[in-house]
Write a structure and sequence with these properties.
Largest sheet: none
Number of helices: 9
Number of domains: 2
CATH superfamily of the largest domain: Tetracycline Repressor, domain 2
Strand content: under 5%
Helix content: 55-70%
Distance between the termini: 105 Å
Structural class: mainly alpha
Radius of gyration: 24 Å
């Protein structure tokens, strides 16, 4: 008796292209998130457009198509950095005196750097970012303005009054102190003075004492 071998027909599953897996607008977000993860894992030196495209599941040409260049994509990640830094600098005006708020902002600045070292190292690398990126410039200006507002409060300067030379120097001193401290902490250069001090101690003890010495309570 002849037997017939029955085979089940396989469904016709058309392979979708990587771009088809994203809704409109999501591809740019996926590439930005991929670049951000690369920076978090490997730093600025480990970034490449090809790796960002691979992680996003698109062709190597896709990042350049959407952002123009590596600088365009990295500028978008830098914007994320400035937005998060602005959040870390956002101190409730009722939290203390202007001097106390300045010290809180200093701790917030360094906390951001230690939490997001990839973003932090990128945000100030102008050689890697688009020089004419308006949104990036605006994000940086908004972040610096938060420190400026605290300086104004410390000196009782109205919002419309330009900062004089002394106030600008105070702003630069505040920024330079916490920015330099963050770099030293990330590079492990504080070990000689504070051996084996974890990041939590740097933020809760070492840095607050340094800031209090610079801006003591009246």
């Amino acid at each position: 008796m002849n037997t017939v071998k029955m085979t089940q027909a396989k469904p016709n599953r058309r392979k979708t292209s990587p771009v088809e897996r994203y809704h409109h607008g999501d591809l740019k977000t996926a590439l930005i998130e991929a670049a951000d993860r690369i920076l978090a894992e490997h730093g600025v030196a480990g970034f490449s457009l090809r790796e960002a495209a691979r992680r996003a599941g698109v062709s190597p040409a896709a990042p350049a198509h959407h952002f123009g260049s590596a600088a365009g994509l990295l500028s978008e990640v830098a914007i994320l950095g400035f937005e998060e830094l602005a959040h870390c600098l956002d101190v409730d005006p009722a939290a203390g005196t202007p001097t106390q708020r300045m010290r809180m902002q200093g701790v917030g600045y360094v906390r951001f750097a230690l939490t997001y070292p990839g973003r932090f190292h990128l945000m100030f690398r102008h050689d890697l970012l688009s020089p004419d990126h308006a949104a990036l410039q605006a994000a940086g200006d908004r972040t610096l303005m938060q420190l400026e507002q605290t300086i104004r409060a410390m000196r009782s300067l109205p919002p419309q009054q330009p900062l004089d030379a002394s106030a600008r120097a105070e702003l630069l001193a505040a920024w330079s102190m916490v920015h330099g401290f963050a770099h030293l902490a990330l590079d492990g250069k504080l070990a000689q003075l504070h051996a084996d001090a974890p990041s939590s101690d740097l933020l809760s003890e070492v840095l607050p004492k340094m800031l209090e010495n610079r801006w003591p309570d009246a």
